[in-house]
Amino acid sequence: MSPYPSLVTVSALLLYFVVTINVGRARFKYQVPVPQTTGNPDFERVLRVQQNTLEQLALFIPALWLFSIYVNPIWAAGLGAAWVVGRIAYAWGYYIAAEKRGPGFAISSLSSIVLILGSLVGIILSMLK
């Protein structure tokens, strides 16, 4: 088994950990008490980054590993690294202004789509062998 998809998985989890910590920091900075999830728009953007990243992880991690198993672990790691970079760009842009999240979202979404569709093709081809 290739270590590269594992490294990408850990990178994605570390990214999620950082954006989760950022929510706590934003709660303090913008004085938004628990369990409140609305109030200051700057806080809400930080919270949306964390929530959207969690939502995307549910697609990304299985797709990364299925692609790694049925297609190629090196290509999986490359596409996965692009996803992580895209999520960083998404977070950075969204923290600045909601309308700046688009490029990062596009990069990570394209990576996920390729991983999902590539996995499907790889699974079907393995069944036909």
Automatic annotation (TrEMBL):
Domain of life: Bacteria
Topology of the protein relative to the lipid bilayer: Multi-pass membrane protein
Protein's cellular compartments: Membrane
Transmembrane annotation, as ranges: 6-24, 57-85, 105-128
Protein's UniProt name: MAPEG domain-containing protein
Coiled-coil ranges per UniProt: none
GO biological-process terms attached to the record: leukotriene metabolic process
UniProt keyword annotations, A-Z: Membrane, Transmembrane, Transmembrane helix
Organism of origin: Cuspidothrix issatschenkoi CHARLIE-1
This protein's GO CC annotations: membrane
GO MF annotation list: glutathione peroxidase activity; glutathione transferase activity
PANTHER family named among the record's database cross-references: MICROSOMAL GLUTATHIONE S-TRANSFERASE (PTHR10250), MICROSOMAL GLUTATHIONE S-TRANSFERASE-RELATED (PTHR10250:SF15)
